[in-house]
Write a structure and sequence with these properties.
Helix content is about 60%, strand content about 15%. It is of the alpha+beta class and about 375 residues long. The protein folds into two domains: about 260 residues, no CATH class; about 80 residues.
Length: about 375
């Protein structure tokens, strides 16, 4: 009988879980849809690249939506069972609250493993692959965006004009460039040929000019200099091409796997701020998956509370708990970064606080005692009168 009940409760939670995770992930992705559509429509980026970029961004969204969906699905599922008095029937048949925990514990463990796998492997790979894809998209925009006999200002501080581009597009003829990156000395560059050279190692696209001259004047136009060259390289700032920030080859902490974070944190001579950032990211690899266990514990007593609104109450309660959790988490990380707390303690503060509250509520609920202390209930009754 217990196996049938466990499957029944697990099925009730799973329906809400997959529905909520789809809605939340799609909602978070909608915030970037306009930027992605701008890349495709106005920037000339291929649809296949946009689809791949969305695919690489999905893990960073799932690591948030999986714990959130778990908590809300537990509250809504148990809330529905409680509203229909099914929880009372199960207890009357001799099942204790701890026996009813088995399907919730199984669901929390599955969500823990999904979040841990996503955080350990998929998120670092996805973030780094997305950065490389953005570079490839910017390189593509640099090559397809330059048209002959049209002034191109897609590159920060540069205006580029090419009189002729052969059909194969390997180089440009009779190149004219206005360089305003140094405001004190605006520069005009003229070259017979220009080549676009990309370097994945340094994450840069270079415009190599051949057989030309550099013409420079000061701000007051009192002096003039001319320099002839056989070869001259200009590093192009591609941030304007894709609407993003200029990036370097060095991995960000969010793009590193756990072994890479540990290895980097042991590097000698690191600044304290950088070291604290690495330590916090290391602990976040564990704290975010562990939030699934915490949400499972605190979701049981809150979910079986008798209430008329049932599902809607579970959704609202879930949002309140999630907001509380992330406010505490952000506060703990901020205190860890400033040095007021140990980075490890700051990263685990939210799980510790909500975990203790969840265990307390679970024990009180299992003993059939009211969650609200008698003194607070007395104050509430007198206030309502």
């Amino acid at each position: 009988m217990s196996t049938v009940i466990n499957r029944y409760i697990l099925k009730e939670i799973s329906i809400y879980f997959f529905m909520i995770i789809f809605i939340l992930t799609f909602s978070l992705l909608m915030g970037r849809i306009l930027q992605l559509m701008d890349l495709m429509i106005n920037r000339g980026i291929h649809l296949a690249d946009i689809v791949m970029l969305v695919f690489y961004l999905m893990p960073s969204l799932l690591i948030i939506t999986i714990p959130v969906s778990l908590l809300i699905s537990i509250l809504m599922g148990l809330g529905r069972l409680s509203l229909d008095n099914e929880i009372i029937v199960l207890k009357s048949s001799g099942l204790s609250l701890y026996q009813l925990m088995k399907p919730i514990a199984f669901a929390s463990l599955c969500a823990f493993l999904m979040t841990a796998t996503t955080g350990f492997f998929l998120v670092p790979y996805g973030n780094f692959a997305a950065r490389n894809l953005l570079f490839d998209m910017a390189k593509q925009k640099a090559s397809i965006g330059i048209k002959e006999r049209i002034f191109n200002d897609d590159f920060a501080g540069l205006v580029l004009y090419a009189e002729e581009i052969p059909s194969h597009g390997d180089y440009m003829k009779n190149v004219f460039i206005c360089d305003t990156r140094m405001l004190k000395e605006p520069t005009t560059i003229i070259a017979q040929k220009g080549y676009l050279i990309s370097s994945p190692e340094s994450m840069q696209v270079t415009l190599r000019l051949k057989d030309g001259s550099i013409h420079t004047t000061d701000k007051n136009l009192t002096t003039y200099k001319k320099i002839d060259f056989s070869s001259y390289d200009i590093n192009l700032d591609l941030s304007a091409s894709i609407g993003g920030k200029n990036r370097t080859i060095a991995k960000d902490s969010k793009e590193m796997s756990l072994p890479e974070l540990i290895r980097k944190s042991r590097t000698h001579g690191l600044k304290k701020t950088v070291l604290k950032d690495f330590i916090i990211e290391i602990h976040k690899k564990f704290t975010i998956p562990f939030a699934c266990i915490v949400f499972g514990i605190i979701g049981i007593p809150l979910g079986i509370l008798k209430h008329r609104s049932g599902k809607s109450r579970g959704f609202v309660t879930g949002l309140i708990v999630i907001m509380t959790y992330y406010v505490i988490q952000l506060g703990g990380e901020a205190l860890g970064e400033t040095g007021m707390l140990s980075p490890a303690i700051g990263a685990w503060t939210a799980n510790a606080i909500l975990g203790i509250i969840g265990v307390y509520l679970l024990i009180i609920t299992a003993k059939e005692q009211p969650l609200m202390p008698a003194c607070l209930r007395h104050i509430r009754i007198r206030t309502s009168e």
